[in-house]
Amino acid sequence: MDTLSHMSPVTRLEHLASELGCSALDEDLALYLDNEDELKPLRQCFHIPRIKDLPTTDQSLVNEEEECVYFCGNSLGLLPKMVKPYLDEELDKWAKMGVHGHFMGKRPWALGDECIVDLMAKLVGAEAGEVALMNGLTVNLHLLMLSFYKPTKTRHKILLEAKAFPSDHYAVESQIQLHGLDVETSMLLVHPRKGEETLRTEDIVSVIEREGDSIAVILFSGVQYYTGQLFDIPKITEAGHRKGCYVGFDLAHAVGNVELYLHDWGVDFACWCSYKYLNSGAGGLAGAFIHEKHGRSVKPSLVGWWGHEFKSRFSMENKLQLSPGIDGFRLSNPPILLVCSLHASLEVFHQTDMKTLRKKSILLTAYLEYLIKHYYSENVADPKKPHAKIITPSRCEDRGCQLSLAFSVPIKAVYKELAKRGVACDMREPNGLRIAPVPLYNSFHDVFRFIRILGEALASVVTEE
Ligand SMILES: *Cc1c(COP(=O)(O)O)cnc(C)c1O
């Protein structure tokens, strides 16, 4: 496939199909692409739910033995097979040696997070010492904002997307209120242009240029959770820095999905959860990043014993020796059971790298886009036929793996029919579906099956009406 890598993904798909002597719509192309996929073995590292085990399945409609089409990795990643053995290792240790487990074995509990933090740092393009694993995402966002958001009379605003994830929106509102400021005047939202769904980088940059002198912190997502838009992190960061703002990112939908180079981009701070593309299980251990340039200058506002340097942490003299950078932000001893599940997942990522994953991802999502456009574009001759508009940007540089679809029909009934047939994806009423083919464990054939099942689901809803 490599000789074709200079072509656009769609040209490449059509070219491959013609070489195979089939159409790009044929199952043969999906099977060929899977066969050629060097990452295919990684699917075996995960438990893929069987259709018969899903609570939504209508057994009369499906082949029991089939694996489900799981396109929900943007919400909750699948279970890596090594999670259970790793949990067992720590549970056995606990059973056999109790408190001695803190400093013994493969993952000494007192250093549990530190055993896997380098694996994490590589995935976000951070240097050692710039990343910590702790708490949940929203907690980390608050801890970082407490240190980076120091409003003054003239510079008191926080800039974010108009439709940020609710937790981020509330976190920002409450941070502003914590300083006794007014949300109306201190929270600055960037809206898409009229009639558009996603934000243009030039518009974000021009708001920063216009308002930058009054902006203390710019907080964007890396990949927008709803539209799937990948923001231009280096450009936003640079624009913010030109105006003297701190620039931070919530990478919940970006980590494990797109390539990140937080250190080289000079991003000031970032945080993320690990249960979406990082497959660590619901409520998994979250990540936080502070750039090395702030290592000595930016200090935690709230301190716990785990922020005290390891060397003298346990001498309990109550004279704080604060660890530099993000390590000083850690409050509590790490939850070893959460470390285990994240460890298992990060090891799968490190059987490859983000560059390779992203290469597959771009083709996989382009394939999904190609089939959706072919079968579900608005039909001028038959405008009543159900169709879907893709609201995610069409340039692969502007998106991760997810496509967000807006249907011409109410989605709830269609979604139910999909679920009955073993498709797991995310629905937003009235008409939205978010579809995330994840390169780590999804196949081209998953995409092919999804399109076929979507056809069945739409047909069954239309006939029922
Ligand atoms: C998933 C997600 C969250 C969830 O926050 P938790 O603290 O992990 O519950 C917050 N923000 C964004 C942008 C998300 O995508």
| Class from helix and strand fractions | alpha/beta
Name the helix and strand elements from N-terminus to C-terminus, one letter apiece.
HHEEEHHEHEHHEHEHEHEEHHHEEHEEEH
As a percent range, the share of strand residues is 5-15%
- Total number of helices: 15
Question: Can you characterise this structure?
Answer:
The protein is α/β, with parallel strands linked by helices and 465 residues long. 38% of the residues lie in helices and 12% in strands. It contains 15 helices and 15 strands. The strands form four sheets. A seven-stranded mixed beta sheet has the order 4-10-9-8-7-5-6, with helices on both faces. Strand 7, helix 9 and strand 8 (246-250) form a beta-alpha-beta unit. The mean pLDDT is 96. The structure holds pyridoxal-5'-phosphate (PLP). Pyridoxal-5'-phosphate is lined by residues 136-138, 165, 167-168, 221, 225, 250, 252-253, 273. Residues 136-138, 165, 167-168, 221, 225, 250, 252-253, 273 line the site of pyridoxal-5'-phosphate (PLP).
